[in-house]
# Entry
Amino acid sequence: MKATVADIARSCGLSTATVDRVLNNRPGASAANRQRVMEAAKQLGYLPTLDQVVLPSKPAHLEFFLPIGSNAFMADLAHHIEDYAARLPLVASCRIHNLAGISPGALQNAVENLSLKANGVGVIAVDHPRTRNILRELVEAGIRLVTLVSDVPAAPRSAYVGIDNRVAGRTAALLMGRFLGGRTGHLAMVVGSRSYRGHEEREMGFRSVLSEEFPNLTVSSAVESHDEPDASYRSTIKALHDEPELLGIYCVGAGRSGVAKALLEARPRKKPVFICHDLTKETRRYLVDDLADVVIDQNARLIAEQSVIRLLGSIASSAPYLTKKFIEPRLIFKENVPLQ
# Structure
């Protein structure tokens, strides 16, 4: 039977009202009493666990570095992180840093504003030597690190929270091939940035399955848009002009709005199969309006929750690495668009 607030109160010799204030992170309890309550809650098994890693007995200060910009998925992710962290008594504070771009320099500038109280950091960053050095210095300073969405495996992070991006790319190719039903022709690919390991892995996975199972399909255009809608629009317009019978478009990153705009303006005789990532307000509309055929969603809410939990688990654990566990992507079609 799970321990109750009354059990914790008896164990630490405090009132249930004080225990309730501490567990719900409300004011009115001293630091000493907070520590007593959290220690008792930990001993009684009241605090949540993940993969048998007990979460910390003392509320932690978390900070996240995300290149939000105009990226709807990143904005959703930041919102879900803040919302979930605000509901957890074990999170003393949660701060989101909006990076001014994806370059290592942008991360370096933002890290300089890291609070001295920070216990754990979550990062979405490119896999670059400067990035790895920045992250190594954070960990050497005693801060626990989790990478999100796109991994930096050579960095001393405690965990990666996100989908298996190579599998996501392979899934996109399998869907593309099945949608096209044996037809022979050309495809276009709009890559966000190959500096992101996740985008590079999606492209590799996509090309691998085409080579293995659909040699009748050829990628004739693969352009890096750096997740800029204008760049993805221009590259899609060019691809549609160069290949009037273009069979499909795979948008690897966040340039999907540019692809959608190009498809609406060009109005090809037969719309190419359009596969993209991340369920947002705009991609919901693309599905409903028959502009996109499928969205491979990495579930911003679940990544947000798991990133907070994994950071808390890494703070509580003496082990440098937590158990690796990927987020399962969702395949969203017109007929199964979720409410949330």
